[in-house]
Structures are given as structure tokens and as C-alpha cells.
């Protein structure tokens, strides 16, 4: 079971999404929070597999809550689920440590899919978010850590940036899933990033995609 903490200050949103997720055979919503402070407390106490985090909440917003959780528990996997797509929300949320970014306009089935993929080590970004990252990062000066990547690692980085899962990459390149995971681990180390989302940001920043 994938244990989920759902933080959102809109009760009806929590009721609807929780009902759908709880009906899934592999997902269990273990706790709910209606503000960022409570989300931090429950995340550190329960250590769920996934935290679904709204951004605009009373008392403490989701960005600050994400930052506090990651500072005390760096391995946390946080999925932003929000109505906001503006720059003032997207970049701070990702910089705080969120690994996936979903909109509330997404279907509940898409949120469930994002939970599974994020749990498996993937990063799910709304297309609008990916476009914003690409435009912003292209304006910044480049370092060239990617020069250390082998041809195969560069190929896999491109597929990661296209949103491919580990299994899809393995199938496309006709290599073992374990081999893909080793390559991705090497890529993250060479690029000095912590996760796939940051690797994708790096790829856009350096015009590799």
C-alpha cells in the first residue's frame, strides 16, 4: 500500500479526492490536514510514502510546509496539488523540494497515477509547469556538468525530460530496468541534483531538450 497524507484546507476537495484514492487497491489515505502547520506535524510523525500538498492554506502555506518537511525529512516525496500555475507558486514549490506538480483541474485518476509514479521515483509535472521551467531556465547562465555524462547517460536524460518512466526507457533502449536505474543514479550524481525533477530542470536550463 502507498500511504498518503493529504493537506488541503478545502474540506470538499479532501472528501472527493480521498474517496477516490481510498477506493484504489494500492493507495491508503492515512491522514488529512487542513493547514500547513498540521501537514508538517503529521508528515514528520507518520512518515507517509506521499504527501499531497495544497499551496494556499491558512496559518502556514504549502510552500513553507514543504520547505519545513524537506529540511527535517529530505527523503519525503511531496506532490503539489493546487489551482495555481503562476511563477510565484511554481518555482518556490519546486525549489522547496516538491517532486511533482499537479493542478486541481486534473482528474482524480490522474492524481492517483501521479502518486504511483512519484512513489516509484518519477516526477510528474503539468505541461504548463514544464513550459515555464524551460522559458525561465533558458535565461540563466549555464554550467556544464552534463559534459561528464556518457552518450548513454545523455540519451537517458533526454528520455527522462520527455516524461518517460524507467520502464518505458528500458523498453525503448532495449536494456534492463535495473540498468536504467543505475544510469539515472549516475546522472543525478554527475549533475549534482537530488531527483529527476531537478535533472529535468537542468536539462531545460542548458537547452539540452
Automatic annotation (TrEMBL):
<dbReference type="GO" id="GO:0003677">
    <property type="term" value="F:DNA binding"/>
</dbReference>
<dbReference type="InterPro" id="IPR001789">
    <property type="entry name" value="Sig_transdc_resp-reg_receiver"/>
</dbReference>
<dbReference type="Pfam" id="PF00196">
    <property type="entry name" value="GerE"/>
</dbReference>
<protein>
    <submittedName>
        <fullName>LuxR family transcriptional regulator</fullName>
    </submittedName>
</protein>
<feature type="modified residue" description="4-aspartylphosphate">
    <location>
        <position position="54"/>
    </location>
</feature>
<dbReference type="InterPro" id="IPR000792">
    <property type="entry name" value="Tscrpt_reg_LuxR_C"/>
</dbReference>
<dbReference type="InterPro" id="IPR058245">
    <property type="entry name" value="NreC/VraR/RcsB-like_REC"/>
</dbReference>
<keyword id="KW-0597">Phosphoprotein</keyword>
<keyword id="KW-0805">Transcription regulation</keyword>
<keyword id="KW-0804">Transcription</keyword>
<dbReference type="InterPro" id="IPR011006">
    <property type="entry name" value="CheY-like_superfamily"/>
</dbReference>
<feature type="domain" description="Response regulatory">
    <location>
        <begin position="3"/>
        <end position="119"/>
    </location>
</feature>
<dbReference type="Pfam" id="PF00072">
    <property type="entry name" value="Response_reg"/>
</dbReference>
<dbReference type="GO" id="GO:0006355">
    <property type="term" value="P:regulation of DNA-templated transcription"/>
</dbReference>
<dbReference type="GO" id="GO:0005737">
    <property type="term" value="C:cytoplasm"/>
</dbReference>
<dbReference type="InterPro" id="IPR016032">
    <property type="entry name" value="Sig_transdc_resp-reg_C-effctor"/>
</dbReference>
<dbReference type="InterPro" id="IPR039420">
    <property type="entry name" value="WalR-like"/>
</dbReference>
<keyword id="KW-0238">DNA-binding</keyword>
<feature type="domain" description="HTH luxR-type">
    <location>
        <begin position="142"/>
        <end position="207"/>
    </location>
</feature>
<dbReference type="GO" id="GO:0000160">
    <property type="term" value="P:phosphorelay signal transduction system"/>
</dbReference>
